[in-house]
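Researcher: Quick test of sequence recovery. C-alpha cells follow.
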C-alpha cells in the first residue's frame, strides 16, 4: 500500500517527454540558473559519460566538456525542473555504459566514432510546460529591457528639464 503511494508521487514528479540520451552522445543541456531575483537559461554542451537509473524519477546523466584546457563534469537530474531541455547534437558508437576512460585522454585519443541518426526526430520532444516557461523568461527579459529604457528616458527628460531651468535662470540674470 505505501509502496504504491510512493510510486504514485514519484511518477507525478517525472517529466512526460524526455530525450533518450545515452553514453557517448554529445548533448546540449539547457539549465535554468537563478542569480538574485533574475532567471536565465545556460547551455552546457559536452559528452555524456554515463547514464544512471534510466527509468526512475531520479535518472541522471553525467556530461563532460573541456573548457580552457580543464575538464569539467556536471551531473544533471533529467526530471529536475531546473533542466529545461536536453538536445542531442551527435551520437557516437560506444561499447560501454560508463566512459570513464575519456577523462585520461585528450585530443585525438578522446575522439568517438560518429553514427548517423535522425537528429530532428530524436530531439522533437515537446514539453509544453518547458516551452511555456522558456517563453515566459524571454518575455520577462523584454519587459525588463523596456522598463530600463523607460527609466533612462525619464532620467534624460529630467536632466533636460533641469538644464532648461538653469539656462532660463541664467538668461534672467543677464
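Model:
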Amino acid at each position: 500500500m505505501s509502496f504504491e503511494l510512493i510510486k504514485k508521487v514519484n511518477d507525478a514528479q517525472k517529466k512526460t517527454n524526455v530525450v533518450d540520451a545515452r553514453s557517448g552522445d554529445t548533448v546540449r543541456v539547457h539549465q535554468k540558473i537563478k542569480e538574485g531575483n533574475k532567471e536565465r537559461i545556460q547551455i552546457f554542451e559536452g559528452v555524456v559519460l554515463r547514464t544512471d537509473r534510466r527509468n526512475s524519477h531520479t535518472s541522471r546523466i553525467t556530461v563532460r566538456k573541456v573548457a580552457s584546457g580543464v575538464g569539467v563534469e556536471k551531473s544533471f537530474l533529467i526530471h529536475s525542473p531546473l533542466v529545461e531541455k536536453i538536445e542531442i547534437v551527435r551520437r557516437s558508437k560506444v561499447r560501454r555504459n560508463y566512459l570513464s576512460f575519456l577523462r585520461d585522454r585528450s585530443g585525438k585519443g578522446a575522439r568517438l566514432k560518429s553514427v548517423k541518426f535522425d537528429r530532428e526526430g530524436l530531439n522533437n520532444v515537446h514539453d509544453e510546460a518547458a516551452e511555456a516557461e522558456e517563453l515566459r523568461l524571454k518575455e520577462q527579459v523584454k519587459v525588463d529591457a523596456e522598463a530600463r529604457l523607460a527609466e533612462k528616458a525619464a532620467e534624460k527628460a529630467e536632466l533636460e528639464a533641469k538644464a532648461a531651468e538653469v539656462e532660463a535662470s541664467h538668461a534672467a540674470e543677464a
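The beta strands are 26-35, 38-52, 60-67, 70-77, 83-92, 114-115.
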